[in-house]
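Reopening this ticket.

The earlier resolution said the output was attached, but the attachment link was broken on my side. Pasting everything inline this time so it's all in one place.
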Amino acid sequence: MLGTKLGPKLGTVLKTVFKQNSDKHPSHRGRLFFTRLTIAMVAVLSSSVNAELILNGSTIYSDLGKDQFVAALYIETAHNNPQVIQTMDSNKRMEVRMLNNYSKRRWVNLWMQSISINNSRENFSDSAEELIALMQTPKSAPKKGDVLEYIFSPQQGTSMRFNGTELISDLSGDVFGLLLRTWIGAIPPSTSFKEQLLGNQSNREARDMLESLSPDKERVALAASWMIPQPKQEPKQAAAIAPKVAAPTPIAEPAAKPVAEVKIAKAENPSTDAPKEVASEETASEELAISENTTAEAPAAVEEQSVDKTEEEVDFNVAEALAQRDYTPLVVQKIYQNISYPSRAVSKNQQGTVRVAIQIGRSGELKSTQTTQESKYSSLNRAALKAVEKAAPFPELPEQISAEFFELSIPITFRLK
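Inline output:
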């Protein structure tokens, strides 16, 4: 692989070195040749490491009938095997171009709940502190037009750029792995989302948006200003100026409603409505249990119609992150286990996706449920709602979760094979 990359450059280097060495005295040629060749090779290798990555695939995440963000995956060498990409010890970049506004909490919940069901508890807990630091680094919630980049380098680990400004760096490479698995792991936002990022399917609209969308100048300047050290204020004499009371921290909109999706394969006996289990990933011992002909897909974002101009401070600690990681799969698994593919829909070859938003009280009671995206078939829409109702009540909320309600939006895809 390296030879393929360096072939043209290496040929140019050798020609240059030989030419420079030809007019030297024979006694100096050997030593000078190898010295120059070593320096040249170091330069070539360095340039290859920092070479621009290529687009492996791009896609658009949509919810509630609207496009939410463009996602793109860049790696050094194109590949369509998710396991290979995840284990590559080479430069990678996940890029998000926002098409709608999110609150801070909504955006954090989108990632954290998806990470929770795509990674083992051990992997999650080992990188929890760094992951939370990454999520809390931006001082603004992502807005329409913003560009967020999550970057991995074998030499420097994980870093993040917000509208071109690097906000955090030198995090463990495992942090990038947690993020990447939410896109191309066992439980992605959707099958098409994953396949397009792997390059198995093409999305021309997503590629066009990557080239045409860019953040506002004001947002670029805002991100850059976060890195400017704030001047120290001189202490004021008590007699001259009375002390001021700090203004309360402004609060933005309520928390996000992340989503999860499950695909249902055609049962061997289409006349039955037996529940389908949720499939598990071999590499994660605490993944959801899925039957042989069923696959699950992960939480994705719910659209936020508007975001207050003020910014919400998200108080999200390691204990709460771990509690969410443990609680989310319990809810998702219980719902998946109660999904029945209507026999009439099977016989008529009816397929589609239904997205259901739920709200769970602290005691585990189902507070509310509604479809936020319906399929073309009423029988599938009813089956999705019925699965949630049959799954209730859910386990009590862990005390580490501070919210009064646990909100989750689950997309359920009914698909026959």
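Reporter confirms the inline version is readable. The first strand starts at residue 54 and ends at 63. The chain is about 35% helix and 20% strand.
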